[in-house]
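User: Modeling request: complex.
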Amino acid sequence: MTVAPTRKRFMLPIVIFVLLCGGVWFWAQNVETVLGDPTWILGWILTASVILPSFFNLRKRLIAFNFGSASVWLTLHVASGIAAIILFVLHTDGIWPTGIYEQLMATLFAAITLTGLCGLWTQLVLPRRLTETGHEYVYEKIPGTVADLRDAARQAVKTYTEATGSELLSHHYEKSLDWYFARPRFFWNNVFGGNAAWAWANAHMIAIRRFADPLQSATIDSIENLVSTKVVVDQHYACQSVLKRWLLAHVPLSTAFLVVVAWHIVIVHVYAS
Amino acid sequence: MDAATIDKPKRWDTAFDPDMSDADFDLMMARSEIAEVDGRFPDSLPLEGIVRNDMRLVRYQRGDIIVREGDYGSSAFILVEGEVQIAKTTIPLSELGGDGTERQGFVQRLGNLFRNTSVPEVRDVDAYKQRASASGDRPLGTALPDVERAMSELSLIPLSEGAFFGELAALGRTPRVATIFASTDSTLMEIRWQGLRDIMKFDEGWRKRIDKTYREAALEAYLRQTDILKNLPPDQAQHVTDHCLFETYGSFDWHHDFNRKGGQANEPVIAHEGDYPDGVLLIRAGFARLATGKGHERRTVSYLGAGDVFGLSELFDVWRYPDTADHRLSYTLSALGYVDVIRIPVDVLKRFVFETMTPPEDHGIKLAHRSAADDLLMEWAVDNRYMNGTKTMVIDLNSCVRCDDCVSACAATHGGDPRFRREGEPFGTWMVANACMHCKDPVCMVGCPTGAIRRDRESGSVVINDLTCIGCATCANSCPYDNITMVSIRDLAGRTILDENGSGQPIMKATKCDLCTGRPGGPACVQACPNGSLSRVDFRDFHVEASS
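Assistant: Request completed. Predicted assembly structure:
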């Protein structure tokens, strides 16, 4: 068996691909020194470094065939994607293009790069953050869990109100914590590892606790337990949402970029010939 | 407040055959195998009670399969009337209710891409209608499809009235080594393992008979495979074999207790830390917890499985350094469920074994370098009985991006229906998911009436033949890990398939992970994980690697 590889597994392939890019740069410099034009070759190498990562998506769909481990494919995908950034700069000489079509192509490339790097960050950082919560929630079941927590909180408040006839807690709950329990909250704060949810909920519990009689304190304690669960559930919801959804930007952008590149190659070859 | 009361559950609340007639009971009591039993049975466990509750008369038609090669049984048989045949040659799986798994070809894999549907659990109804049936329209798997051909073509050993068979597999929880079928209409007494164990305990005749069979048939060959005895000359090995003692701890039906109590399930102690050992214990089947007392709680150090030895380093040290060595056992050994033990007495070891063996490893030295936290993973695995798995699905939560590519890949490989759930028991950074663990002790395989669930002869994975599964849920109810799911099946149009002859109820099938048997490259879930977070592990290897 093999225990899961660490995130360091990306380092060696990235270093190799970057060194290869360095070799390409050195070659391009030499070609330019003798008044040659490396752009053609650079363009084709760049195309290859863009197409290679796209095969990863194809491999996912052809699961019936044995095309090797997806983790190897992802490592190559990341390494060649980073190489593509360097090759793109070499291919364009670091100049932002002036033509509209070329600007569209450059914008798409920038968008792919940005979403790819964001995706890599989420894959390297967010799983650990979820593990550190000490609980696991299946993403598709989270709405049900949130609904259960909301019902439990409302029931606790209702029980207290019916028992005492006091509306203090129910009024406060309706104006503050009910908003929190209604659905997942503090989405981006949870994505970036903040603690705003707990701070917010705690402030509202402190606000009511100072008026509390013993029975009310017990109710607030039970709501506090529900809040601590909801904090973790919301963390899972936010982080798992980002982990699942970033591909919804990266993959369509990549597809669009490949289409644009294909037409770019056709045009370049037509005019060159 | 008054407590609700019920009768305390007793061992014989559920008889092997609750509908046994008095005539059948009298017939069994009159048989010489029972009538000649002269052991002194306790009042709480009379022989009549064992016969009434742990035995039954089973009548087979010609061609009926009594035991299948490779099945895990929990009972033995005595032939009362008729004739049965032991098949010396292996009968094809297709005739026994199994389905030979073949490596999938290119075309088949290409077809898989288009066979997946959004309708769950779709089956080809025609395949069920066209499946071969056994002779006399009995379900395939319960009888041979062509008994005449089997009689003429197979190499057979006939057994006649009074033959006793199946006891080694029943007592040792090992697979049946041959298929046995009825060549004439036959009547057999079947005795479940609990009754067999008790009669052996109190009747010397039965005990000697079964011990003799075991020693002759299996023990010497088994001992010759163990590290400590494999180099012994044949005559000395024979001495060791003759002096071994057999012991059994715990219960075959451990999963019932475990399902109720989880980590608090009963664990009968085999040997206590601090006691003076009188021999080495060789685990023949099952699992045992190796623990040492720390504070108020035990600390699990490891677990022992088939082939492992307990007490050897202590006895060896005493033999080598009689004046200075500590005679006492360093650990407590307790049965995790069911454990079959061979005890090799110390004087036998001194005479034949110690001289020729290499000094055993001292676990104490290794333990001294480990913190209590290092053993938490093992403690958790043993408490949850994960050590039973040979291919346990373990996910590293620190790198798992919760993408469910593993589930998608599993579904894509199984007609659109995933065969596991990415849920389970987390511990630290690890999670054991709800996927079949392909257990060493596959309790799910005990009691399958058609042999539909079986261990693949090549890969060792536990697989279910969908065509012969009758949806009885015996396997699903037995699985201690809730890893077998019963599903109602649909036809290609998406309609639920109902029982047309009987109740009109939906046709159910048992489903579970088959480890993608036949798929090149192994399990699709492992291959599909983009971060290599998902592994299929044997927990002992996993523990070593994860701890390091």
